[in-house]
Design goal:
- The complex is a heterodimer of chains A (311) and B (185).
- Chain A has 311 residues and is of the alpha+beta class.
- Chain A has a single domain, classed as Oxidoreductase, molybdopterin-binding domain (Sulfite Oxidase, Chain A, domain 2).
- In chain A, the strands form two sheets. In chain A, strands 1, 4, 5, 8, 9, 10, 12 and 13 form an eight-stranded mixed β-sheet that branches.
- In chain A, a hairpin with a 5-residue loop joins strand 12 and strand 13.
- Chain B is globular.
- The chains are: A alpha+beta (311), B mainly alpha (185).
- Bound molecules: protoporphyrin IX containing FE (HEM).
- The site of protoporphyrin IX containing FE has 21 residues of chain B, from helix 2, helix 4, helix 6 and helix 9.
Chain lengths: 311, 185
């Protein structure tokens, strides 16, 4: 059902006017949105915004959202290629339907969800900053639902302390997965309280449309206070576990990638200084904010922890 | 043949400027500029070092005449690389730049490499060669540590070490061919 060639995607100015048309409702039914996309483009032609414009859409700090063009053409997705501009082309046509996600491990009600089951959950828009460990960032209007809602459906047992996520392993469609340098499939993890935090979402769309394959279709994690690599894409498996999962990057370079990977200008990565960042679409560097600007909401999760130790 | 070195060395710059003019760079053009000038600088530096061993292999004398232009073109790209880093990316913000140098060993290695290449570029003229006399050759051996530092710079900044290791291996081979017992006469 959700296999949308990029040519059918509504450009974001159209989306913006549609969004205005809908009265800026915070929570929209994804079913309605996805039904609308690909079949008709109502209000198209009524927009006056030029290509790439994101008139009015900002994050809560007032910074404008990046354009769909920027968001869909500069991707770190090593399952396809390490070339950020090459991902879009290689990911085109990636099969995202049918899609199932099994949620299990230390839970009372293990379940396999079809992607449609997850779309039936109420979808809402979240405009988040995405900060890559390579010291660039974007502002992205995601569509999705809090991860906590999904986890509640399977009823985590008291022994569950961490959540482990796994990306689909499909080397025939993902050429980067044929590269044996990496211990595929991609794995990421969160502490259970991090996973239950309201800011952590499962994203199913961007600018009100289904995710494009290069952005992690059909569904991905978005944890905005952590470096982008924590926000695992194309998820097929979620397990609640007792011990801290070992992510792909931890396995590959344990000295460089910690489990927490919270955005922190004071903890320097061996390769990139994290003190400042380049916002895509702007020229000047800007200082990096602790927890990517979400400190007020998430710092309490780490009370008493030495964040230099637990990087 | 030797005159082809000029258009060929300028291809990376031409592509970069052309793509920039046509809007074909990525949405992170400053990054493109830094990476592509750095890569061109390193490749040209290795080509510079390849001339002497290749001449010994083939006996083609004209290869030796390529060293100077290749070295200078390498320096051109490395200079653009530094401008992209310090001026375009960091806006000459000295606090941020010195923090980057202090924090990142790869920036330190790059700077060190550049500092060794600078006097070589400045003394590349015939006049300087005459003035320096017998000191000119030992001075220009600085290209060896400069190249090693540049390769280390690349190794330390890359997320995946494969490509930098290939460059290091090639460099190691080029330097080993200069050792007396491997020297092909
Ligand atoms: C002058 C001091 C230098 C500074 C401040 C500097 C800085 C940088 C920076 C910031 C990057 C990008 C790192 C990243 O974003 O991941 C980079 C990449 C690179 N630099 Fe330098 N650099 C310097 C000198 C050099 C020299 C002398 C060479 C070679 C002769 C060189 C070759 C490279 C290469 C090959 C790359 C990687 C390109 C790629 O990944 O495709 N750099 N440098």
């Amino acid at each position: 059902m959700v296999k949308i060639p990029s040519s059918e995607l509504t450009p974001e100015p159209v989306y913006l006017s549609r969004r205005a048309f809908l009265g800026g409702a915070g929570a929209l039914s994804a079913a309605a949105l996805l039904a609308a996309c690909g079949t008709e483009r109502f209000v198209s032609g009524t927009t006056t915004a030029g290509p790439g414009a994101t008139a009015g859409l900002t994050d809560e700090l007032g910074d404008p959202a990046n354009s769909l063009d920027q968001i869909t053409n500069y991707n770190n997705y090593y399952e396809f290629t390490t070339d950020k501009e090459g991902v879009a082309r290689l990911a085109k046509g990636f099969t995202t339907s049918p899609w199932e996600v099994s949620v299990g491990g230390l839970v009372a009600q293990p379940r396999t969800f079809g992607f449609e089951d997850l779309l039936a959950l109420e979808q809402e828009e979240r405009i988040y900053r995405l900060r890559c460990v390579e010291a660039w960032s974007m502002v992205i209007p995601w569509l999705g639902f809090p991860l906590s809602r999904l986890l509640a459906l399977v009823e985590p047992r008291p022994e569950a302390k961490f959540v482990r996520f796994e990306t689909v392993y499909r080397p025939e469609e993902m050429p980067g997965q044929r590269d044996r340098h990496y211990p595929w499939p991609y794995v990421e993890g969160l502490r259970l309280d991090e996973a239950m935090h309201d800011l952590a979402i499962v994203a199913t769309g961007i600018y009100g449309h289904a995710l494009t394959p290069q952005n992690g279709a059909p569904l991905r994690l978005v944890v905005p206070w952590k470096y982008g690599f924590k926000s695992i894409k194309a998820i097929v498996k979620i397990d609640l576990v007792e011990t801290m999962p070992v992510s792909l990057w931890m396995a590959l370079a344990p000295m460089e990638y910690g489990f927490y990977a919270n955005v922190n200008p004071d903890v320097t990565h061996p390769r990139w200084s994290q003190a400042s960042e380049r916002r895509i679409g702007t020229r000047a560097r800007r200082p990096t904010l602790p927890f990517n600007g979400y400190a007020e909401q998430v710092a309490p999760l780490y009370a008493g922890m030495d964040l230099r130790q637990h990087y | 043949m030797p005159s082809a070195v000029h258009p060929l060395s300028l291809i990376p710059l031409g592509l970069l400027l052309g793509e920039a003019a046509l809007g074909l760079l990525s949405v992170n053009p400053i990054q493109d500029l830094i990476l592509r000038t750095g890569k061109a600088g390193l490749v040209l530096l290795l080509l510079t070092l390849a001339c002497t061993p290749l001449k010994r292999l083939t006996g083609w004398k004209w290869l030796l005449a390529l060293r100077k232009p290749l070295g200078l073109y390498s320096f051109l790209y490395v200079s653009l690389h530094l401008v992209a880093f310090a001026v375009i990316d960091f806006g000459l913000d000295l606090a941020l730049i010195s923090q980057a140098i202090a924090e990142k060993r790869y920036v330190l290695a790059g700077m060190a490499s550049f500092s060794l290449l600078l006097p070589l570029a400045l003394t590349s003229t015939k006049a300087a060669q005459r003035r320096l006399g017998r000191w000119w050759r030992p001075l220009h051996r600085l290209i060896y540590p400069a190249a090693l530092l540049a390769a280390l710079h690349y190794l330390w900044l890359a997320k995946v070490p494969r490509e930098p290791l290939i460059f290091l291996a090639i460099l190691g081979g080029l330097l080993a061919l200069r050792l007396p017992w491997w020297r092909i006469r």
